[in-house]
Design goal:
Number of helices: 15
Structural class: alpha+beta
Oligomer: single chain
Radius of gyration: 31 Å
Number of domains: 4
Length: 431
């Protein structure tokens, strides 16, 4: 054994990091294992010939428990993925799985520190870009900022690398195309049941325009009420927090997998809305981490995300989910559900589910009909004037903050009043 180690000019080492030949799964030497004069060269060539791009491992002889073994180690290859016998694999737990075409493309782009949207689209020419839309983008970038962009639209596109040598990138085409963009299709629907559609629309516009087009369709098909606060102006209240819905729509558009053949969709039902987007979460981010904010933001479309941030559609990378959750909590609604679904990502948001007016005609007092969560709380207080905030939270499945919001709203509308202390007092419903 000593002669063999000396032949390869190697010394015994206590610890190895690589693939071992001649050692079983328990770390013991394999009986009758031997290393021939050309074994190391043959193994190295076999790896080289079966991989593409070809990789050449370092092969060394080592001593483990008094026996000779061989370690094959490979430094991380800078370009990914590497094919084995013409196929691309990933390791999941203790088994091998083939990579999908999308996974192969994403991994390859990440190895070059770039994304699909930064590449030239050979089918589109610069005359397909609307310079008027670029001017609107510049105006949004300059809004309320001390240092403004003074360059012309073409110069801006070049500076942001949205066009390169008069060639159009995927990002530039999706964001500033003049006319319909079939790659950005979003299907919109208002459903009475999962199989019965009452109204529908198809959006095929540039990405910035799609934000408002989708939100306009949503506003058309959700309820809106008014809260009378005693001030001359009434407080408008939509069925859902519109700022949070806007955040969901922007996330859909910015993080969509535009290489996938599927379309995005928004389905509006009586008491919930479903948002679906092609493109699942990155494998290294779980839904739990997403909800907790315990992750590092990574944009699938880096150029698009950067442009939306410059135009002030995005406040800060990775903060959108927090604002969505906060918006629904402050509205007194259930937290949205985020989930990987089929080949994409789905967000479900839920509205107030009371279908009847509570308190006879509250509109006789405040000028409007009170509905939803506010109506539930008003009814609970009317039936039990001594009910506590904690009990209200339990009965309505709201957070403490949500209950405080609803109570404050009822007080401002002069519908309820608190008599006495928090512990020993009681509620009164005002006529």
């Amino acid at each position: 054994m000593t002669a063999l180690l000396n032949r390869y000019l190697l010394l015994p080492i206590p610890k190895v990091d690589g693939f071992l030949i001649g050692i079983d799964d328990k770390g013991n030497p394999v009986k009758r294992f031997s290393v021939g004069d050309e074994s190391l060269q043959n193994w190295s060539n076999e790896v080289k010939n079966k991989t593409h791009p070809s990789i050449i491992p370092d092969c060394i002889c080592i001593e483990i428990k008094g026996a000779v073994a061989v370690e094959l180690s490979i430094k991380e290859f800078p370009i990914k993925p590497v094919a084995f016998k013409g196929r691309y694999y990933k390791r999941v737990n203790n088994s091998n799985h083939l990579l999908s075409l999308v996974e192969i493309a994403d991994m390859h782009l990440r190895s070059f520190n770039t994304s699909w949207d930064s590449y030239i689209n050979p089918e589109k020419t610069i005359d397909r870009i609307s310079l008027e839309k670029v001017s609107v983008f510049i105006s949004n970038c300059n809004n309320d900022r001390p240092y403004i962009i003074t360059d012309d639209p073409l110069t801006v596109l070049n500076k942001y690398e949205l066009i390169k040598n008069d060639q159009v990138t995927n990002a530039a085409y999706l964001m500033f195309a003049d006319g319909d963009v079939f790659d950005t299709t979003i299907e919109l629907g208002r459903f009475s049941t999962p199989t019965s559609i009452k109204d529908g629309a198809t959006v095929r516009a540039d990405l910035f325009s799609e934000v408002d087009l989708v939100l306009d369709f949503i506003r058309k098909h959700i309820n809106k009420g008014y809260i009378i606060t005693g001030d001359p102006r009434r407080e408008e209240r939509w069925q859902y927090p519109m700022d949070a819905l806007r955040e969901i729509v922007i996330n859909m558009i910015v993080h969509r997998d535009y290489m996938h053949y599927g379309d995005s969709s928004v389905k509006i039902y009586d008491d919930y809305i479903e948002f679906f987007n092609p493109g699942r979460l990155p494998e290294n981010i779980t839904v739990e981490q997403l909800v907790k904010g315990d992750y590092s933001s990574q944009a699938r479309n880096r150029k698009i995300a950067a442009a939306f941030k410059e135009a002030q559609f995005i406040e800060k990378y990775g903060s959108g989910i927090k604002r969505i959750i906060k918006g629904f909590a402050e509205y007194g609604l259930k937290q949205p559900v985020f989930e990987n679904f089929q080949h994409g990502f789905r967000v479900m948001v839920y509205a107030e589910t009371v279908g009847e007016t509570v308190g006879e005609t509250v509109g006789e007092t405040v000028g409007e009909t009170l509905r939803g969560t506010s109506a539930i709380i008003l009814s609970l207080i009317k039936n039990d004037p001594h009910i506590t905030r904690k009990e209200l939270a339990e009965k309505t499945n709201l957070s403490t903050r949500g209950i405080e919001y609803q109570i404050d709203k009822l007080k401002k509308a002069k519908l309820i009043n608190r008599v006495g202390s928090t512990k020993s007092g009681f509620w009164t419903v005002l006529d």
